[in-house]
């Protein structure tokens, strides 16, 4: 199987060394499931002192990433890949909010280019290069590097062979529109709090139903906005109606 290849355009490639050199990302790279190329935008600056930014037309604070180095970097990547590029994603606060659904879509690609914005932003003409824009939340970071790390991690763990249990991603929070159920491990009793009896019963059907109902309950309490998009069975919907009735009776 061919690896998923990430080309990440950044001003600070050294920021990625720690996160991409440990845990699942490290193992995925070592096993040939994932390839990450860090492309220093400064290396493609056509200017004498490797400048990559300039003051904005019209005035205002901050500096803007110039288009030339980014265009040249992408052209070099395209040439290296025989004229073909996968989706080109600009990481910026104005993009589509990143989600598990979007992570699954990106995990089906063979090649992804991530452009890390920085300073006050990028020249608007850089957006013409992008096939999509992603934001990891409604807040502003110093640059797109941290967002790129989040995207790579979320996508990489969905690749076949990266996780020990191939079924794990399907049970994650947001996978089916619900938050994940509670987890317990040893000891069975800790400081007076006992593991729910059903989890030690050995009854797999009861355990599965308990976990499903706990996911629905947790989603209703913490993220009720997700329920309208969740993949619910008729049994799930019945349980949800009963939950809402109980909450209404209790007045909470």
UniProtKB/TrEMBL annotation:
It holds the Pfam family tRNA_m1G_MT. Keywords: Cytoplasm, Methyltransferase, S-adenosyl-L-methionine, Transferase, tRNA processing. SUPFAM superfamilies: alpha/beta knot (SSF75217). One of its GO terms (biological process) is tRNA N1-guanine methylation. The keyword S-adenosyl-L-methionine applies. GO terms for cellular component: cytosol. Its main location: cytoplasm. It is found in: Cytoplasm. It catalyses: guanosine(37) in tRNA + S-adenosyl-L-methionine = N(1)-methylguanosine(37) in tRNA + S-adenosyl-L-homocysteine + H(+). Residues 5-227 form the tRNA methyltransferase TRMD/TRM10-type domain. It is an enzyme of class 2 (transferase). Its EC number is 2.1.1.228. GO terms for molecular function: tRNA (guanine(37)-N1)-methyltransferase activity. S-adenosyl-L-methionine binds at residues 117, 136-141. Specifically methylates guanosine-37 in various tRNAs. Homodimer. Belongs to the RNA methyltransferase TrmD family. This is tRNA (guanine-N(1)-)-methyltransferase. It comes from Ammonifex degensii (strain DSM 10501 / KC4). The lineage of its organism: Bacteria, Bacillati, Bacillota, Clostridia, Thermoanaerobacterales.
């Amino acid at each position: 199987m061919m690896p998923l290849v990430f080309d990440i355009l950044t001003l600070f490639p050294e920021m990625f060394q720690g996160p991409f050199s440990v845990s699942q990302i490290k193992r995925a790279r070592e096993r040939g499931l994932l390839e990450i190329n860090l492309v220093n935008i400064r290396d493609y600056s056509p200017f004498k002192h490797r400048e990559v930014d300039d003051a904005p037309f019209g005035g205002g604070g901050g500096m803007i990433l110039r288009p030339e180095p980014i265009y040249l970097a992408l052209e070099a990547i395209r040439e290296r890949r025989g004229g073909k590029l996968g989706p080109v994603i600009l990481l910026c606060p104005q993009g589509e909010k990143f989600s598990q659904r979007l992570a699954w879509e990106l995990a089906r690609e063979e090649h992804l280019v991530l452009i890390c914005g920085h300073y006050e932003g990028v020249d608007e003409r850089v957006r013409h290069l992008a096939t999509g824009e992603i934001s990891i939340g409604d807040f502003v970071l110093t640059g797109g590097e941290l967002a790129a790390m989040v995207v790579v991690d979320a996508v990489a763990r969905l690749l076949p062979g990266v996780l020990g249990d191939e079924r794990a991603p399907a049970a994650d929070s947001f996978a089916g529109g619900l938050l994940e159920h509670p987890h317990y491990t040893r000891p069975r009793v800790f400081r007076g709090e006992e593991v729910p009896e059903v989890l030690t019963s050995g009854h797999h059907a009861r355990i599965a139903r308990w976990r499903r109902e706990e996911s629905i309950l947790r989603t209703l309490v913490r993220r009720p906005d997700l329920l309208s998009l969740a993949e619910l069975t008729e049994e799930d919907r019945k349980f949800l109606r009963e939950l809402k009735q109980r909450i209404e009776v209790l007045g909470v």
